[in-house]
Amino acid sequence: MKTYAIVLASGIAQRFNPSGPQLKQFAKVAGRTLLEHVIDLFEHSEGIDEIFVVITPGYRGAAETILKGGAYKKVSRLLEGGATRRESSRIGISAIPEEEAQVVIHDCARPLLSGRIVRDCLEALKNYDAVDVAIPTADTIIRVNAGGFIEEIPERSHLMRGQTPQCFKLSLIRRAHELAASDETYTDDCGLVVRHKLAPVFVVAGERANIKVTWPEDLHLADKFFQLRSMDELPENDQALDRLRDKVIVVFGGTSGIGERIVQQASEQGAVCIPLSRRTGCNIADYAQVQAALATAAQQHGHIDAIINSTGILRIGKLAARELEDILEELRVNYIGAIHISRAAISYLRETRGSLILFTSSSYTRGRALYAPYSSAKAGIVNLVQALAEELYDEGIRVNALNPARTATPMRYAAFGEEEPATLLSPQEVARTTLLTLVSGITGQVIDVGNEEKMVPMP
Question: Running DSSP on this structure, what letter comes out for residue 83?
């Protein structure tokens, strides 16, 4: 029996963007549109045979642009939706040619659906004709009457919050829509089955991360969930570092601190490493020097698989008390240098579908007194990484940011003096996570390095 995934991407998103034309299914988070995240999940789900996408009328061209290139082999139908979610669901269901099949109906507004949920739903369909996904409610639910007063407080232990996907035997959900043709009481498919008492609906455990993007601020929450998920997607052990063998890796800042440890560890795994810094005659504040260094590396080794920039300088002082040229020099190294490296790297990484890693700092989340240029530059690095990940996604270039907590490096000691070693990360630990990121498939993410004990507020 075939299994179809129907992706409902046909809403008009009035709550998401009431004053503008952008539909949330085309909004980007973690470098890709919500629609791409959802389709990609089903594309790589072994139990899904075909994908139908139900799109908002008038936006077929935008969807076709996303689907171009044949990356999604399972997408077989692109349908225009109806005026309501239920109508769009009916359109998707009606397009299935078989008399019987399994149907997985999912809202495009939930881009964080996991493979585990899909697998559990398909397993449950072996025993039940209707399956829903839900999580326990953490809030007290109240029923309010027309006058605005509490009428009832249901027992919370029996209440759950519904999610999607909702999954069915095709004949059952078709029958539910036939019976509900003139009934607007229920908008979701499981509600139709329950209302007409067609079958018991089994509930599969959902996940808190499987949020629905409804309001603009939900994109920020979704982005953070994607970041946390990326940490989980890093290889669990160092065996994955075997993939570094024979890779050509250029490391800017590779002669000291974290960069030196990256070169050491990658070389131990059989990689060919080219450490660059001012000591080797490459100042990343000078674009011509960056270009020349990469050209030499590519000429000597034939190609470049990865480029890492761990270069940085940190100078302490109130903005008004510092010399302007000193401030500009710091920005040229910490931010403009990253621009230089990124721009020069693209042509080489395009050939190898390689990876670019830039270093940010825990200070990017909030400006720190006494080093405003450093904090603001590191915030700029995060935005640079996110933007480049989107720009370069179709070219197969992965771009990520490493965000280490306070680390025992010469730069750190020069700025703050000697500190309690137990409060600092080791450069070796940061280097290891950097290389695990390098061999992973993630892109557009900020990879946090450091445990709770060590991630104490910076002075």
Answer: S
Instruction: Output the pTM of the full model.
Output: 0.78
Domain limit, last residue, from 181, 215, 249: 215
Q: Read off the tokens for 181.
A: 């043709």
Q: At what angle do helices 337-352 and 372-392 cross, to 10 degrees?
A: 20
Q: Which amino acid is at 34?
A: L
Q: Which two tokens stand for residue 311?
A: 């270069």
Q: Do 281 and 175 fall within a single domain?
A: no
Beta-strand runs (E) in 39-92: 50-55, 75-80
Q: How far is CA 269 from the centre of its chain?
A: 28
Place of tokens 């000291």: 256
Among 159, 185, 215, residue at a domain's last position = 215
- The number of beta carbons lying within 10 Å of the beta carbon of residue 57 is 13
* 266-280, 360-374, 429-443: segment of lowest average pLDDT: 360-374
Where are the extended beta strands (E) located within 10-119? 28-29, 32-33, 50-55, 75-80, 102-107
Per the structure, the complete domain to which residue 197 belongs is given by: 3-215
How many whole angstroms separate alpha carbon 104 and alpha carbon 380?
41
